[in-house]
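Work Package 3 (structural annotation) set out to generate three-dimensional models for the target panel prioritized at the project kickoff. During this period the team completed the workflow that converts sequence records into discrete structure tokens, so that structures can be stored uniformly alongside our sequence database. As a representative example, we reproduce one entry of 150 residues exactly as it appears in the project archive.
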Amino acid sequence: MNHNLGAAVILHPAIGFAMPLEIPAFYTGGSEDIISQLSANYMYTMGAVTSPKVFAEIDGAGHVEPAKAKSRWTPYVIAFFECHLNQVGKKCDEIYGKSTENPCSLCTCKTLPLTVCKHRKGWLHLTESVFSVRMAKIVFVLLIWMLGSN
């Protein structure tokens, strides 16, 4: 099913399950967010398997950070969409780059205190992902077989 989506930003998600995404995804959280403290990181790890992805957590941010009039996420949400929907190279640098100058890159910005920031800019080839999943299944089956044979 094609919903005609080109990128997704998941701001402080509530605890749930990670949907497998095949579009670039930006997951956010806050160190003081008791509602979604761990789910954004889990979704980053499990959700966007083959697509570019970003996870960042603002130090001291609570669950309502994205709803604030001057949310610290706003310039990076805009940059993420400009990067992936309009292919604006300098906006990609604001997400994936290493600039400490204004506008600074997400993971290296000294004015945005982050407790966690990680990303993968490139796409994984489907064969690599399928191979990884298949290998994990084989290792799991072998492990169960070895434990059962003792």
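The chain has one domain: 8-124.
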